[in-house]
């Protein structure tokens, strides 16, 4: 946890109760060990998609579609969301959730490596969300920035890795942090520096969820 337990509990208690489908997806994520977005970060993405008036969105890393559903619900009826996932089972689960959400028409779920898929896209997108393999963030950001319209938004998840990125080692607040090796933390730090200094972006790092980097294209 990056914020204190009390802050987190307060925000959770104050937030509206998620609908049945989102709650089911979250339970499935926990049960099957699928890493899905923090609920506050997902709400933030939804608000930001509405704030930029998003009509076209691209996402890297659908998993079972939890973040995708938050984004899709922010789109107008004729909006479009393209989301890439390489895991066949997760992609299939996302498809079934979108059928149940009756939003399959505005969501193009692609079972494809995102680095390949991004090459086939044409501008302009209003919002991009990067949430795939962390080692691929830098290359995928370079692919995505030219696809964004000026003023378009890019969001990137897990940029603080449970706080370990701030420590610069697989420890946060004195406790070991599972899953984040020193090498991955070094890659994340390099990416964050690249992101905030990107000449085409106006960027900031936030401690929402597991850390979300946000930027708009100049
Ligand atoms: C953290 S999960 C995504 C969670 C999802 N965005 C959510 O919040 O509900 C990352 C997903 O990215 C997928 N992934 C990793 N590298 C990828 C790539 N190069 N192309 C497409 N999907 C990728 C993984 O299979 C995994 O399901």
Automatic annotation (TrEMBL):
The keyword Methyltransferase applies. Keywords: Methyltransferase, S-adenosyl-L-methionine, Transferase. Signal peptide: none annotated. Pfam families: Methyltransf_3. One of its GO terms (biological process) is methylation. It comes from the Bacteria. Coiled coil: none annotated. InterPro entries: Cation-dep_OMT, SAM-dependent_MTases_sf, SAM_O-MeTrfase. One of its GO terms (molecular function) is O-methyltransferase activity. SUPFAM superfamilies: S-adenosyl-L-methionine-dependent methyltransferases. This is Putative O-methyltransferase YrrM. It comes from Conexibacter arvalis.
């Amino acid at each position: 946890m990056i914020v204190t337990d009390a802050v987190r509990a307060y925000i959770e208690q104050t937030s509206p109760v998620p609908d049945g489908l989102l709650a089911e997806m979250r339970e499935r994520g926990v049960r099957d060990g699928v890493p899905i977005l923090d609920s506050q970060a997902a709400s933030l993405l939804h608000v930001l998609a509405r704030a930029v008036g998003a009509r076209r969105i691209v996402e890297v890393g659908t998993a079972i579609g939890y973040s995708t559903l938050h984004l899709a619900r922010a789109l107008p009826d004729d909006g479009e969301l393209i989301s890439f996932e390489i895991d066949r089972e997760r992609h299939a689960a996302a498809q079934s959730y979108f059928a149940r959400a009756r939003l399959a028409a505005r969501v193009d779920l692609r079972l494809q490596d995102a680095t390949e898929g991004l090459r086939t896209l044409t501008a302009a997108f209003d919002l991009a969300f990067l949430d795939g393999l962390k080692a691929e963030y830098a290359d995928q950001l370079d692919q995505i920035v030219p696809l964004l319209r000026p003023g378009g938004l890019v969001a990137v998840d897990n940029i603080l890795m449970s706080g370990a990125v701030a420590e610069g080692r697989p420890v946060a607040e004195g406790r070991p942090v599972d899953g984040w090796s020193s090498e991955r933390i070094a890659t994340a730090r390099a990416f964050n520096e690249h992101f905030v200094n990107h000449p085409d972006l106006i960027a900031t790092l936030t401690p929402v969820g597991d850390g979300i980097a946000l930027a708009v294209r100049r």
